[in-house]
């Protein structure tokens, strides 16, 4: 009986956690939307209060408005006029103390991760970490530049080594290109392998089992 209970748990647990996360995110969006409606009621005429209050009871309206707003923003900034306004907005926020440090850091990370021309998390590789003979999966995020590249000398790559089972935290490394082994698996397959702590085997694992044991970089 214990075996069947565990099997059933493994079936329902991922679904339950997925639903819980989605409801949590939806709750945050609805909370922000409710705050916006409250602020709107504070400045709107009294005759509109009832109509505004009725918007609170429409399920998922906050999510629809959020997605629609992002879509319209994307369409707007895709042309020259929108690009000009975006530069003005960036310049304004970059001149506000405290705000500029947070905004610029988040913008650099988001541009790197989500830009279609970026190289972040586009390649999964094998590296020896945290010591010689111990292998882990890492993701190439780019190449060192400026003073760092000059100090390193030889060709190096920037790597992100995620932790398991939470890949949103990890370590940033710069390693010689010669010590990095490219993998044929996709980034998604590598993330699944990491999150599952090796339980979900990537495709072609049997062919790559002997990989790290051969021709180890010195």
Automatic annotation (TrEMBL):
<keyword id="KW-0812">Transmembrane</keyword>
<keyword id="KW-1133">Transmembrane helix</keyword>
<feature type="transmembrane region" description="Helical">
    <location>
        <begin position="12"/>
        <end position="40"/>
    </location>
</feature>
<dbReference type="Pfam" id="PF04367">
    <property type="entry name" value="DUF502"/>
</dbReference>
<keyword id="KW-0472">Membrane</keyword>
<dbReference type="InterPro" id="IPR007462">
    <property type="entry name" value="COV1-like"/>
</dbReference>
<protein>
    <recommendedName>
        <fullName>DUF502 domain-containing protein</fullName>
    </recommendedName>
</protein>
<feature type="transmembrane region" description="Helical">
    <location>
        <begin position="60"/>
        <end position="81"/>
    </location>
</feature>
